[in-house]
Amino acid sequence: MPSRQAKRLGLALAVVGLALLALALWLGPRSWDQPWMKSRVAAQLSARVGGEVAFDRLAVTFWPRLRVQFSGCRISVPGVGRGDLPQATLYPRLGPFLMGRLQPAAVSLLAPEVALQMPAAAPRGWMSGAIRPDRLPTPVPSFDLTIVGGRLELSRGGQRLLQLADLDLQLNTAHGRPHFQLECRSNLWQRLVAAGQTPSGEKVLRGQAEVTGFAPAALMHTLAPAPAAHLQFDPLDLNASFTVGADSGLQARLHGPRLGATATGTSGQAALAGEDLALSVALKAAGLEIEIESLRLTAPAALLSGSLRLAPQAPRLGLALTVREVDLTAVRQALQDLVGDHPVVHRVLTIVRGGRLSEARWDAAGNTWRELFGWENFRVRTQLVDGRVFVPKPGLDLSDVSGQVSIAQGRLTGSGLQARMGDSSGRDGALQLGLTDTAETPFGLDLQVAADLSQLPPVLKRIGGPPAYLTELAKLDAVSGRGLGRLKLEKTPAGMTAVVAVAEFDLEAGYQRLPARVSLSGGSFFLDSDQIRVAGLDGRMGGTALQGLSARLGRRPPYALEVTSLAASAALSEIFPWLLGFPALQEPLKRLAPISGGIELASATLSGPLLAPARWRFQATGRLVAAVAGAGLLG
To answer: Cα separation of 61 and 30, whole Å?
Structure first.
């Protein structure tokens, strides 16, 4: 047992300790607020923050809880920011405090105003660096932060990126499991209410948020300054769920009932409206990705989804958009209102005049917004249904167009196309068309057609050719009939060329160089830039019957004509006046007049320049039937 003397000594020490503690509690607030003490504390804090810290009053109290209170505190760190803290209260842990170290267990800030600056060298339009979630400091265990009526401003290069006002925050990190409650106003929204916590056994914070009056335009000016200049959004109301973790970064899903915007272009404005917006946002070390999971557009009507990616490495920008069930009539009007004066857009609108897109996908990448929306850096793939397409040079006005259409590297291409033009139809088609209207602009069309042959001469006339060819083409009239074959049109340095290959057809037409209308059927027809060729044709010309006609006509001077096979039966009274119309034949034939009867040719061949009948070489075998010639034959 302790002796009575030892008990007296212990009691005396306790009394002295209590006296000293009482003296400390009485002298503490007075001694800490002395100029020499404030100067020493300010110097130590300035060294720790790498800037300048100053305050008007410093008070330390030990009862009922150890507390350090700063009044009129001002903090400035060059290149980082500044802060004005009218009242900042720290609740240090007692043990470290008695050892000379300030380790706060809780911090309370009343009406703080903090302005932070992002490095000016940060990639423009890309929110990286200090605000990346994977770089946020890990709070010490059991740390409480309370902010009442705070203001926070984040800027870069003199431009305000984010401003928070009326900021109320309660944050607790007990046992390494943060949870918080937050409410504030901002330049990006009218009101934000959020709360989150870290579930037991997890390393991510999960939370919910309600945003009222969110202003996308302000955010776009930071993330996408170029397109932001052309889009003005109506305020949005959003509900969000999110997670934050050192490894996973920030992950958020947002939903909004309505979306409204006005797009402004070089030609005017167009209204955009949508419903049932669903977004997801991912901010990690690899970059920022905003995904539109779904949006039902009501003006123009369409279903929209897609993603926007911003990354610190090249390509820094990536865009992918998918739209479904698009009415092209409304889209054309919107594009016409926005950028109708752009030469490429104008050409696209000239070509694609209507229809529906069952699906269209836009993919683009670049290091700047100008690159991202440059024609050479994006690709559009669509599935066109019930379309109306106009092919400029040959003047083909196509309807009921369906198939796959894409735009890439300044070219519009189509595959698997089906279309109609009047009473003609086409399938299994391919189209390539340049989007710049120059002499070097490529063009190609390849289409299996079931054609109304009355439409063929106007198409061939628009394609063009030598003057003599066009003169002869103009002598055709009242062309009618049907043909089944393939049409190929291609632009070459020499001009537009056409290849027409008809496997079977029925044709009736007038030709000014023939005495009567001609009807042809069966056989085949072929036309390209060098020749016109027929084979195995049967037909009639007035009272003349033709069988097994095979012939070739050159399309370049001297326009060589070659009939390699022909069987015919003709009335001499019908063909004789026609033959007299050729000057080279008038002298020998006029002695036969008048003539009657018929002629049957078992076979005939002919060759020579089309426009010089005197140079034709003609061979035939056959017989005359009841032929009667004039008396001049005997003279």
So the answer is: 10
Q: Could you give the count of Cα atoms lying within 13 Å of 69 in the half-sphere of its Cβ?
A: 14
Residue 358 CB partners (closer than 8 Å, separation 6+): 324, 325, 383, 384, 385
DSSP, collapsed to helix, strand or coil, labels residue 141 as coil
Tell me if 468 sits within 8 A of 557, measured CB to CB: yes
Instruction: Give the 3-state secondary structure of residue 124.
Output: coil
- Residue 354 φ/ψ region, left for φ over 0, alpha for ψ in the -120 to 50 degree band, beta for the rest: left
**pLDDT, position 23:** 45
- 3-state SS of 376-443? HHEEEEEEEEEEEEEECCCCEEEEEEEEEEEEECCEEEEEEEEEEECCEEEEEEEEEEECCCCCCCCE
Model pTM score: 0.67
Along the chain (635 residues), what's the average pLDDT of each consecutive run of 10 residues?
A: 54 45 47 72 82 88 82 90 91 75 84 86 43 45 87 85 92 85 94 93 91 83 68 88 87 91 77 90 87 89 90 86 86 74 78 87 84 75 89 84 88 91 91 76 87 86 79 87 89 81 89 87 88 90 89 88 87 81 72 79 88 83 80 51
Q: How far apart are CA 608 and CA 558, in angstroms?
A: 9
| Alpha helix ranges (H) inside 445-551 | 456-463, 467-474
Long-range contact pairs involving 387-391 (C-beta distance under 8 Å, separation at least 24) = 387/328, 387/352, 387/354, 387/355, 387/356, 387/419, 388/352, 388/353, 388/354, 388/355, 389/351, 389/352, 389/353, 389/355, 389/419, 390/350, 390/351, 390/353, 391/351, 391/431, 391/433, 391/445, 391/489
* 558 upstream amide cis, omega within 30 of 0: yes
- From CA 306, how far away is CA 309, in angstroms rounded? 10
| Per-residue confidence (pLDDT) for residue 173, from 0 to 100 | 85
